[in-house]
Amino acid sequence: xxxxxxxxxxxxxxxxxxxxxxxxxxxxxxxxxxxxxxxxxxxxxxxxxxxxxxxxxxxxxxxxxxxxxxxxxxxxxxxxxxxxxxxxxxxxxxxxxxxxxxxxxxxxxxxxxxxxxxxxxxxxxxxxxxxxxxxxxxxxxxxxxxxxxxxxxxxxxxxxxxxxxxxxxxxxxxxxxxxxxxxxxxxxxx
Length: 190
Known about the structure:
- With about 190 residues, the chain is mainly α.
- The model has no long low-confidence stretch (mean pLDDT about 95).
- The longest helix has about 35 residues, at about 140-170.
- The chain folds into two domains: about 10-60, no CATH class; about 65-170.
- The termini are close together.
- It is globular, with a radius of gyration of 17 Å.
- It has eight helices and no strands.
């Protein structure tokens, strides 16, 4: 069960209510009135919610990168942080946008997907370098720039960083996957 106290829309401050209504215009609110994902914890600070939701929209919809590769990077971030909601929300989208299921299955096992296309494998390597090593070695940086340009490299860095923040939010508040969804990273103390 999520650690966050459940709320009803009438319990929100005017600032929170304004952001809640922005969310409702673009996404579906759950039957219990909660937004789901990282959005409920973020709404505890209305200004933070506004800024993060705006950034999320840009990263979801307005980068120069292939959408499948963006979803792949998000999924890898969710795997590294063992963020159940992140993985269950974005791994299927990665497949929907052209990443083969066997690539996603290999990543979920914690293995490098050697069967992936060159672009997919490069995205995996860049993501893991940043997430695990916290650096992007020059040869890998050079390959990424040659493939996606400097703009693409800054965008993927922003995507990964944003989804680190998202994964931490999900994990800190123990946000649960939806009903009927498999929990890929079971918690022993949940």
